[in-house]
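Morning F.,

Quick status update on the modeling queue. The single chain you submitted on Monday has been processed. Sequence for confirmation:
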Amino acid sequence: MPDLPTIWAGLLALAIFIYVILDGFDLGIGIVFPFLDDDDDRALAMNTVAPVWDGNETWLVLGGGGLMAAFPLAYAVVMPALYAPFIAMILALVFRGVAFEFRWRDKAHERIWDRSFHFGSVLATFCQGLVLGAFVQGIEVEGRAYAGGWWDWLTPFSVMCGVALVAGYALLGATWLIMKTEGSLRDRAYRLARLTGVAMLVFIGIVSAWTPLLSPEIADRWFTFPQLLFVLPVPTLTAILAATLGWSLIKRRDAIAFPSAIGLFGLCFAGLGIGISPYIVPRAITIHEAAAPDSSLAFMLVGAVILLPLILAYTAYAYWVFRGKVDGKTGYH
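Structure tokens below.
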């Protein structure tokens, strides 16, 4: 029999990573929005994501619903621990979505909607970072229930992760604009990408140094032999991709900056997996302890095998149709 809990953990990790990348760059555009030169550039920046931004959040729904269905114990522990940042994130996403639509239809209050778009993007991103930081630092569990307090998610580490994710999404947004635009907006995006790229690399260093201090078990995985040999490719590839990103921003290689930023996120995600596996609630509940019965996992896997390729196919097709550069007069070309 296949290891169904591990398969489902992999599927959920894939869904969350796809969400982080796809919604990350359009949240990133909201984060850098006030720093664009003028209204024309801001409108063009929004137009680069207008055809695809609604579909990007499909993966957030898939990740949350999949966690509840495949790992109900983990869902029952994680949600009470993180209700506050999750609710704030969802409200910010709703507020941001309203602002995205209304700025085009309510020109009399365009400035208000622009600020709302920026504020919603920053708050949603910061809350995602809070959730990540609180999750990594550990959730207090007794028996099969959350045993911590209402404010356990608010710590210096989780706040730092929130700020780090804001910088990271801003880098994704800036490099997306580099890839999709020309002229003054592209020039501004290059300047923003250099600033946010430096910030993200600094935060990667801080998180990498801080995370092993959270738990001796995490420190052992990263700094003891022979485990060190298996994790060494992650920091090595991170250094290579950081150099590639810096080179692309200096030499103005439009097509390289965004994939390099995605690669950095992928390596951070891999490092997170190394630090917490085989737990689904770090250092408290393992993947197999939290999993639903194999019969349920097998039944759901049939649907996932059918639906996931369809979702991936229409997502890829949408991005293919709206490929290329965008300008304010002729649209995509």
